[in-house]
Each structure stands twice: as structure tokens, then as C-alpha cells.
Design a protein that fits this description.
- The protein is α/β, with parallel strands linked by helices.
- It has one domain: Pyruvate-ferredoxin Oxidoreductase, domain 3, CATH 3.40.920.10.
- The chain contains 6 helices and 6 strands.
- The protein has a 6-stranded mixed β-sheet with strand order 2-3-1-4-5-6, with helices on one face.
- A hairpin with a 7-residue loop joins β2 and β3.
- α1 crosses α5, α3 packs across α4 and α3 crosses α6.
């Protein structure tokens, strides 16, 4: 397995937790993984970009036109990071508007679940459902259980499953 993924959002949306979950699945499989993160303003609301390289790579940064998959927790970041995506790369976007990529109003679904930050795992569920990331449901749920605080495991797994269930 060899894949380059970007995760983009704003501070407080769970970009870093989602990055850790994806990386943990690779670690659990004994696949090399490199991650990097860039923070805009060092506070809630600043842009956050994480890069994840799964497989045998020399460095963690993703060059222009190399990302296979982009998970956008904040749709407004798409123009900023568009150049990182391969020409045949795919976006999974938290959005209630029509457009390119796979779009889902993950923010609304997360609000219905009672916690807006859960949109990150809803997007992961969509990516797994559509075969955009080569992980099984069980692998993702195991990683979530390993990383989430005990009192949040159930709602995190529920959010991931909501992403799997979306039409």
C-alpha cells in the first residue's frame, strides 16, 4: 500500500485526531507512515493542514500534484490546497453545496450526533465506504478505540459509522 493523503480544516475541527487515526491504522498494519502538520494561526479557527504518507516514502511533505486523497473538513480551504492533489486525486469534502469531489454535509450530521467535531470521522467513514482509502471498517474502529479518550469512544465510532451509512 502506498498513498498520500492531505487533511485540511481549521483549528478545533479534529484535523490532528483524524490524522492520528489514519496513521494508527497504518502502524497497526506494520506499514511505514509519515505525518506532518502545518498550523496557520496557533489557535482555534486557524488553518490546519496535515499530510500523511502511507508506505515507503523518504519524507513527510506532499509535493504539488502528488496527493491521492484530500479530506476537507473546511470547504473554504480547497482552493488553497488544490495544487497538492493529483489530477486524478479525489476530494472528500464537508459541504452542503454541489461541486467536485465527494460531498457530504458532515457538519450537520455531526450536530445531529451532538458534537460538531465528529465531522472528521464522518469524512473518514465516507472515504472508507467509497474505497478511497484501503482500510477496513474494523481497522478504523480499532484505531479510534486506541486513540479516543474512553468517554468519547462510542460517539467517535458512531460518527465513523454514520459516514459509512450515508447515501
Amino acid at each position: 500500500m502506498k498513498q498520500q493523503i492531505i487533511v485540511s480544516g481549521i483549528g478545533g475541527q479534529g484535523v490532528l485526531f483524524l490524522t492520528r487515526v489514519i496513521a494508527q491504522v497504518a502502524v497497526n498494519r506494520n506499514i511505514p507512515v509519515l505525518t506532518s502538520e502545518t498550523h496557520g494561526m496557533a489557535q482555534r479557527g486557524g488553518t490546519v493542514l496535515s499530510t500523511i504518507k502511507i508506505g515507503d516514502f523518504a519524507g513527510p511533505l506532499i509535493r504539488t500534484g502528488q496527493a491521492d486523497l484530500g479530506l476537507l473538513l473546511w470547504e473554504a480551504n480547497q482552493p488553497v490546497h488544490q495544487t497538492l492533489l493529483k489530477s486524478d486525486g479525489i476530494w472528500v469534502i464537508n459541504s452542503d453545496k454541489a461541486g467536485d469531489g465527494v460531498r457530504i454535509d458532515a457538519a450537520e450530521i455531526a450536530r445531529q450526533l451532538g458534537n460538531a467535531v465528529l465531522l472528521n470521522l464522518i469524512l473518514l467513514g465516507v472515504a472508507v465506504r467509497d474505497g478511497l482509502i484501503d482500510f477496513t471498517i474494523e481497522e478504523c474502529e480499532t484505531a479510534i478505540q486506541q486513540l479516543a479518550p474512553a468517554k468519547f469512544v462510542a460517539q467517535n465510532v458512531a460518527a465513523f459509522r454514520k459516514g459509512l451509512e450515508q447515501p
